[in-house]
User: What shape does this take?
Amino acid sequence: MDHGVAALDELRDKLMAAPQRRVWVRALVGPAGNGSAALLSLQAVVGPQPLGWLKHTWTYTQCTFASAQITARRLASLLESGTPRELVIDRTRAVVDVQPGQFSSIHAPSLAQYDELRLAWPCSVYTPSITGMTANAPQGYLIGAGDVPSFPVFSGAYAAFFTGNFAVGGTGNPQLGRMSIHCADTGARIVRVRAASLEVWLDGSLLAGTVLELNGVESRATVPVSKRRVVFELPGGLPNEAWLWLKRAAEWIDFRSLGGWGGYRSPDIQVDLPEDPGAELSRLAAQGEGVHLEYKEKLPDTASEKRTVFKTIVAFANGAGGTMLFGVSDDGAIAGLNGDLAVQRRRLNDLIRSLVTPPAQVCVRQEELDGRGVLIAEVPPGNGTLHALVIEANKPEYYVRRDGTTYYARPEELATIVGKAHMTARSPFALL
Assistant: This one.
């Protein structure tokens, strides 16, 4: 990610370029005093609705968490330094007064691993400060009435509302007195990457004039973008330490590290591994279903079928991993899938990307045995990232695996999953 500095005028101009653009806001507001409450923290996404965003309000004695949808024009009107403005967020009123001067900005790619929102589009992130914000973090237990969740510490409530992480331990102290404004750039982005040759899918309304650059140790290549699918021929294989850049002139728009730089590989990158044709398929089909293996005769079509299939994918991703075979009946008979197997494979990958959030790094392979095609979906063990199934918008569903069966996750199981990430981060070997 690129780091820089920005000013309020620059940010206001950017917002007013499309004043009716939707903005998805989450805010923390302090207790009311003298008839008004101060804004303590604000997170805004300008552009497509982020996955997992919900409109709701959590009210406590010490503070209020609220979310709402506003326009870019309304957000821009709040960025007048020295002029306190009122922001209404789902009937919660807060006074906003931003600090003059420059502040930090970040240019982040799509699916950025360091961005807690993990947005689907590249974005610019601006962090203006709130004037006179001297309030300490709320103290004591935060007890919610009715359906509002309760927390023993403020940091747990903050992480749950702003990031969807309900684990209380290891959440750290939130940084208050700052706005975090994410302006999504929907002009162009990388959608999917496959490394058999190198196939790249692109999206956006401003692809014309862009260039894809593949840069690695052994070879380099550039291709002007003329359509949404670009193929790099790799006679010598994928170069080591390969990077893929989507750029216009000397400015990058989006990028991917194909070699897993920093120990991370974006979930949209599909790597095809050579296998002994049919050998593994025969073994898996003869093994029988179990804790880490399930069979499905076909790809799902209806919402009910999708829930049945992808709740298990989610459970595998939240737990010890697993494999799902498509084209195999419950008794292990290899029936095969109807239609073009490559088309079915792309459809399965698209379903995984659209229904599992955040996207799980599922490797989908195709095999044929005696003319019958089967898809093998391999889900790696979870690393502390909490995955959800989203069949209906704004209604994430969380699942785990118990004794070979998929169940809705209990609160303590969700906390255990997320706790793995914090344990890994605190480990002295985490960066080795």
In short: The two ends are 22 Å apart (CA to CA). Helices lie at 8-16, 72-77, 154-163, 279-287, 303-318, 341-355, 411-426.
